[in-house]
Design brief:
By secondary structure, this protein is α/β, with parallel strands linked by helices. It contains 18 helices and 13 strands. Helix 3 packs across helix 5.
Length: 404
């Protein structure tokens, strides 16, 4: 069977906090897939990803396609008049459940799918991108699928059961999520929902890990954390744990990479604890500079929690990246995190348990350089064995071939 032509439908592309999407697209290209990317929103300043140019050549922004939309929509209606009427009726019935959906946008997307002879649509996140892909698939008779991650399962579940029923298959990032999705409809077959870890730049992080120097026991213990500064990442708990480490006379330096609404709160907490000379808020960095931060670290900490609105991380890609670089990791027993960081590989604590978090970091800080290296190598081996983007891409293509 020839390589499938796939439309990837995304809310925004490229997006700095969604490197897993870029890595998945690259892996699919390596596997021979023919891709067209449709972004619902235009990105003013594309994220500075290396090797992005070839993908941008195949990226289309729906706002740019709006010119001549009446003619595009008419072509869809004339080609499949029954589907058009049925889909419009379906849309009128569901639009109150998700006001972000647009029949006009879906029809424009459908026109491009027809024009470019695309056989399958896949969306990342089970929100508006999946909704528009679902409508476009209905208009054209193509198959569609989506990947659900975290917030689109735990918080914003717009039409999720409908999307699951109409999709050829769905993907999620951990078994924890698969069970939640399967519970939406008892008629869903187990084989309709598949677990594929988020794609990471495995080779890039492995190479960066090869260049890491062993810990120098004479310098302060170096701690790194990477994530958007939002409640669910638990960065405020990390600062509180660092405060306790300081009180216990543990010599350390910490760098927190990321930006977001929690930044003022973190600044205040760091200043209040007198840690301004030991804890740096580095802001948002591109992938190359993130690797530099990780390469200089002795351990990686991501103390995820469940936010007040129910949002939480499922399987943070950055944990896999840190492990690939041979960094010992500390995180929490939450959602799918124990699936990627078993307790014999990393150190997991209960979400929000500041004393346990402090103890886990202190335990690593007091290990010999040789023992610390051994912990990191176990994590690295785990990632190489279980978190391979090329295997994930091959599985996606198998699912698309079966659907079309």
């Amino acid at each position: 069977m020839s390589a499938p032509r796939i439309a990837y439908v995304l809310r925004s592309f490229p997006k700095l906090s969604e490197t897993f999407v870029l890595n998945e697209l690259r892996a699919l290209e390596r596997a021979g897939a023919s891709l067209e990317i449709f972004s619902l929103n235009r990105v003013r300043d594309p994220a500075p990803y290396a090797g992005l140019e070839s993908l941008l050549d195949h990226t289309h922004y729906l706002d740019d396609l709006a010119s001549g939309r009446n003619a595009r929509i008419a072509r869809v209606a004339l080609r499949h008049p029954i589907r058009f009427r049925e889909t419009r009726h379906f849309y009128k019935g569901i639009r109150a459940a998700d006001p972000s959906l647009s029949f006009e946008r879906a029809a424009i997307l459908a026109a491009e799918v027809q024009r470019r002879n695309i056989q399958h649509l896949h969306a990342h996140f089970a929100l508006d991108a999946a909704g528009q892909a679902m409508l476009a698939a209905s208009l054209t008779g193509r198959s569609f699928s989506f990947t659900a991650h975290a917030r689109d399962i735990y918080v914003h579940r717009h039409l999720l059961a409908e999307k699951l029923r109409r999709s050829a298959f769905a993907i999620t990032v951990c078994e924890y999520n698969r069970k939640i999705l399967a519970a939406y409809d008892s008629n869903l077959k187990r084989e309709q929902i598949h677990v594929i870890p988020p794609a990471l730049d495995l080779e890039g992080f492995l190479r960066a890990g090869d260049a890491r120097a062993a810990r120098d026991a004479e310098r302060p213990f170096s701690i790194a954390s990477v994530g958007r500064l939002v409640e669910k990442k638990g960065m405020i708990h990390l600062v509180e744990a660092l405060d306790r480490l300081s009180q216990r006379n543990v010599a350390f330096r910490a760098t927190i990479v990321g930006d977001g609404p929690e930044r003022p709160r973190l600044v205040e907490a760091i200043e209040r604890a007198g840690l301004t000379d030991r804890v740096a808020l580095a802001g948002s960095l591109d992938a190359a500079r993130v690797r530099e931060v990780l390469a200089a670290a002795d351990c990686f900490v991501l103390p995820c929690v469940r936010a007040r609105d129910g949002d939480t991380d499922a399987t943070p890609t950055v944990l896999g990246e840190a492990m690939a670089m041979g960094l010992p990791v500390v995180s929490t027993r939450l959602a799918g995190i124990p699936e990627i960081v078993p307790e014999d590989i990393g150190m997991l604590v209960d979400p929000g348990d500041i004393e346990a978090l402090t103890g886990a970091i202190e335990k690593l800080a007091r290990l010999s350089p040789q023992a610390l290296l051994a912990v990191g190598l176990r994590g690295r081996a785990r990632v190489e064995a279980h978190w391979n983007p090329d295997r994930g891409a091959a599985r996606i293509l198998e699912l698309v071939d079966a659907a079309r």
